[in-house]
Design brief:
By secondary structure, this protein is an alpha+beta fold. It has 3 domains: 87 residues, Alpha-Beta Plaits (2-Layer Sandwich), CATH 3.30.70; 58 residues, no CATH class; 77 residues, no CATH class. The protein has 7 helices and 5 strands. A 5-stranded antiparallel sheet has the order 2-3-4-1-5. Helix 3 packs across helix 7 and helix 5 crosses helix 6. The N and C termini lie close together (5 Å). 26% of the residues are buried.
């Protein structure tokens, strides 16, 4: 299955706002990171928070929302669950909005010009992940320059990944707030190393099969059917 070149689903974004929090008492568990906390989000988009502890008094708390809105989510409800009744202060903040593109523009822009990073489609359309993809792409470009004298001898993204991205984005556009069970099943029922390879885009066929088997089929079969009817996937 391959998305038809140029086909674009509805514009979707991953909006995030995170704060670095310092507490007045040792209320943070430094051995426990929270990856998917859906408990404070009741909006129409898919939203969650995650907590990355530094020590017993410091943590980074991030709120994420995926959908058509570019409004930033509020991390403070998640902060309240971390700090409890302890006094706390915000030491730093980070925020942004990442487009979740259906299909990037062609990477080659001239005889010796190549788009890189986000402009080169290195942001995974379905997850917003980019760091490991940028690093792998950089290595491939360096190898191509050494071997061929130009940057274009790099492998394309697998057709399978493009199809999976298209299905996920279609499901997100159709049933945003109802995809919480899919996320929970993904991290509950699949080994974490396979999940991370799947999210980054370096999954093997066995990894993909394990992820697909764990996910609730309804939203994704509905999305696949919608894409097929619109001739956006084949």
């Amino acid at each position: 299955m391959d998305p038809i070149p140029g086909a674009q689903p509805a514009a979707l974004h991953q909006a995030f706002r995170g704060v670095w929090v310092r507490t007045g008492a040792p209320t943070v568990d430094p051995a426990a990171a929270t990856l998917l906390d859906f408990s404070a989000d009741d909006g129409p988009d898919l939203g969650f928070a995650y907590v990355l502890p530094v020590d017993e008094r410091r943590a980074m708390v991030m709120a994420v929302r995926m959908g058509p809105s570019m409004d930033l989510p509020d991390p403070l409800p998640a902060v309240a669950r971390v700090v409890g009744s302890s006094r706390w202060t915000i030491e730093a903040e980070e925020r942004g909005v990442t487009p979740l593109p259906g299909r990037p523009a062609p990477r080659r822009t001239g005889q010796r010009m190549l788009r890189i990073g986000a402009r080169g489609g290195r942001v995974r359309a379905s997850t917003g992940y980019a760091v490991t993809r940028v690093l792998a792409d950089t290595g491939a470009i360096v190898a191509s320059l050494s071997r061929h004298g130009h940057p274009f001898g790099i492998p394309p993204d697998p057709r399978r990944d493009r199809a999976l991205d298209a299905i996920w984005l279609a499901a997100l556009a159709r049933e945003r707030a109802d995809l919480e069970p899919a996320f929970l099943a993904l991290f509950r029922d699949v080994p974490v190393d396979r999940v991370l390879r799947f999210l980054d885009g370096g999954a093997s066929p066995v990894d993909v099969a394990a992820v697909v088997a764990a996910l609730p089929p309804g939203p994704f079969l509905g999305a696949l059917g919608a894409l097929a009817r619109q001739r956006l996937i084949r």
